[in-house]
Amino acid sequence: MGALSGKHAMVTGAGSGIGRAVARTFADARAAVTVVDIDAGAAEQVCRRIVDAGGTATAVVADVSEPGGCDRAVAAAVERHGGIDVLCNAAGIIRRGSVTEISEDDWTRVMAVNVDSVFLLGRRVVPLMEAAGGGSIVSIASGWGLKGGDRAAVYCASKAAVVNLTRAMAIDHGPRGIRVNCVCPGDTDTPMLRQEAAQLGAETTAFLAEAAERPLARIGRPEEIAAAVLFLAADTGSFVTGVALPVDGGGIA
Ligand code: NAP
Q1: Does residue 15 lie in a domain region?
Q2: Which structural domain, as residue segments, surrounds residue 180?
Q3: Which of 49, 81, 188, 204 is most deeply buried (CB count within 10 A of its CB)?
């Protein structure tokens, strides 16, 4: 028996990086997984890999910053798997810059993808979880939801919003058996981290070396973030709700 046997999980941003690792980890834990991503090829590849390994998965192409994309993703999950027991919000983007450096469009887009998606999916998934007697939502926030960082104004604002939305949802929906938590990763080896270097005009090797400056003296692996997500999503986290868990090699410490 896996930790998520008999459960259905939806993972957004599951085509790459942390979301992909979460989708695979959930599938290894025996969940049926709805793999949601804006990138069709990436979603289908992750789905195929899970199915080839003996798991159950469905790929859905959707922009989760849009109500219509969230409607489509949830409808597909319900049609294929009958409901959603676990939701992991991993879709996210970053635009590095101070408030004077980023554009107003960048502000709007980052807030839409990183924050609106958690709201839009939450309002669709919570009623399904209530009807099923409970569920678990885990969002991927960031260490920069707990502290500030340089030239990352909108990203810091968006991740702090995810942290406090997590707490508010935990309070509202706990009485109906729905736990809501978030994981706050430190720098993790994904395409996003390399995009940050490019956005800042930094040399990648030097940027990654600086990112490794933390007590454990390295950046994280997506699978290490996924392990913490699984702990919170499954019954291992049955008395945990409303937390923002740093998984960051001691970066926040
Ligand atoms: P990633 O490798 O870029 O993966 C993010 C995935 O989300 C990509 O497949 C991306 O597609 C997809 N996506 C973007 N916008 C979307 C939308 N509107 N609807 C559906 N899918 C969308 O990034 P990652 O590093 O794994 O990041 C995952 C989460 O962890 C994010 O929320 C990020 O903020 C957070 N995080 C990452 C780090 C880190 O160091 N990597 C640290 C702290 C927190 P495209 O590639 O086509 O855009």
Answers
A1: yes
A2: 8-247
A3: 188
